Amino acid sequence: MAFTSPFPALLGRLLALLASLTCAWSSAASAAETAPAKCPPLLQKSFNRLQDDAPQNLCQYAGKVLLVVNTASYCGFTPQYEGLEKLYAQYGGKGLVVLGFPSNDFGEQEPGKSKEIADLCYNTYGVKFPMFEKTVVSGKSANPLFAELAKAGGGSPKWNFYKYLVGRDGKLIDSYSSITKPDSSGLAKDIQKALAQP
User: Fold this and answer.
1) Among 198, 195, 196, residue whose Cα is nearest residue 95
2) Is position 121 annotated as part of the catalytic site?
3) pLDDT tens figures, 41-58
């Protein structure tokens, strides 16, 4: 009776296992390279989109430079929508996202429902940057994002179209009063500097 060694079969199985592990490691490494930026605490929040109430997790903007603005439809500063959209168009490809939060906190200048606000944003000012449902941005009832931005040193909005600039790391860079126009040279320089950061 001829003797058959078990070693070639065992060696074949070991090589197959090694090849499988190598592929798995390579896939994991590749996934790690393409994984989205870690979501900072400031962005670990969800708000409904203005036009359709669909929940939006702010973590989708991790790694971006953000300009967070409380807006209103019937304010002397409402034409700033146009300037904010220009900023978004100019720097969006480099990593800037403008986030708009309609609020009725000041002078009751945002009395409408979501559809009315959305119509004004899109039809009058051509807004394409993300807009969220009407919310409270000041005082004890401020939504969590605005409460954290105020606590981080940006202060609470004093009126409509107050602005917060947030870096790619999810930390507040600076805040700007309502009278700071979107085309202000100081704001533009701050945005450019933030975009240049890794």
Assistant:
1) 195
2) no
3) 999 999 999 999 999 999
Q: What is the dihedral angle through the alpha carbons of 41, 44, 47, 50, rounded to the nearest 10 degrees?
A: 80
Active-site choice (23, 39, 59, 75): 75
Task: Answer whether 159's CB lies under 8 Å from 56's CB.
Answer: no
Strand runs labelled E in 59-120:
65-71, 96-102
Identity of the residue numbered 103:
S
Rounded to two decimals, what is the model's pTM? 0.81
Length of the chain: 198
Those residues with Cβ within 8 angstroms of residue 77's Cβ, 6 or more apart along the chain or in another chain: 159, 160, 161, 178, 179
Residues 169 and 148: their CA atoms lie apart, in Å, by 15
Return the SS3 of 161.
coil
Using a 10 angstrom Cβ sphere, with 0-12 exposed, 13-18 middle and 19 or more buried, the burial of residue 7 is exposed
* pLDDT tens figures, 59-108: 999 999 999 999 999 999 999 999 999 999 999 999 999 999 999 999 99
Q: Which residues touch 38 (CB under 8 Å, ≥6 apart)?
A: 62
Structure letter (DSSP) for residue 132: B
